[in-house]
Here is the input.
Amino acid sequence: MAMTLRLPQADDQMLTERAAHEGRSKHELVVEAVHTMLTERNEFFDRMLNHGIADNCELLDRLSR
Here is the structure.
């Protein structure tokens, strides 16, 4: 899917520098960053939610009554 991305000048400069440093295109870096944000944030949220439920099982049980 094609889309336009408008970045602040400072972010575009950092992206340009990173792409040059890594020998990759800015497009590749942006696609990777979006994918990482979407997948890792969901996994992190799921882990924290499960951890919170496990740690507070007794309290949650008492509150549900």
Observations:
- The mean pLDDT is 87.
